[in-house]
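Re: beginner question about structure tokens

> Can someone show what the tokenized structure looks like for a real chain? I only ever see the sequence side.

Sure, here's an example I had lying around. Input first:
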Amino acid sequence: MSTPICLENEFLKVSLHTMGAELQSVVHKVSSLEYMWQAEPTVWARHSPVLFPIVGRLKNDSYSYNGIAYKMGQHGFARNKTFQVIAQTQTMVSFQLSDDEETLAIYPFKFCLTLSYILNEQELTLQYEVKNTDTKAIYFSLGAHPGFRLPLFDQESYEDYYLSFNHDETAESYLIDEGLISNQTKAIFTNSSQLNLSKEIFLQDALVFKNLHANTVSIRSKNHTHGLSLTANHFPFYGIWAQKNADFICLEPWCGIADPVSSQSSITQKEGINCLAESENFVRMLLFHFF
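And the corresponding structure tokens:
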């Protein structure tokens, strides 16, 4: 396995990997605090996978395009592909993935996906860019899935933490039925901007929201000022997830969503799908702030 790529400034040390262009570690150099979940293989063996060209699960793990059926597993293939490093300095790196024979067999579209990480003081920007390199429109979803350690300190408990949203919400979570979005919902927010955390929240899978007003979600402790925030603009879907009884939480802004239980399988009609015309680009950005 290749050596991790490191970005560093006076505040943070960040480690990434060409496999999946995955963010694997963020350490605050003053407090020595590690923010990222460290991929315990018996719990959840990932850190921060990129979700492309689908988000979540397809009904029957398949979709159709132009009358042809294709098989694809949950969250797509990008997280399991080796990206090429196309630019790198001490505080930035850009990774790139393009279609190949393997991807074209399950996803009949030519593309170029670039992830660029830029470190600035206590902030890390992640820019996603999808370019259509095909001679036809391409259809895709894109999402983030970063996992953060919780609690951040050994003497704390999971219940010492809460999520803070930068806008009051009145929102329901869409319940999940064997990986698919059901018609049932559960009320989570009623004119509130705070969600107190407990492991019981995730016993029935993720919380899934559509069109939240907030664009910044922060993980905060009732005991101290350390934590982080994630700002995501123009991501219409949001997942919040943790493995059952695990010591982490994932904040997941999505441009796309898992299939509903009523899916008819056509990728062109899939909820939340993005359509990109020939030679066009699709760009989205995340901003992580660690404190």
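Each token stands for a local structural state, so reading them left to right follows the chain. Residues 101-106 form the longest helix (6 residues).
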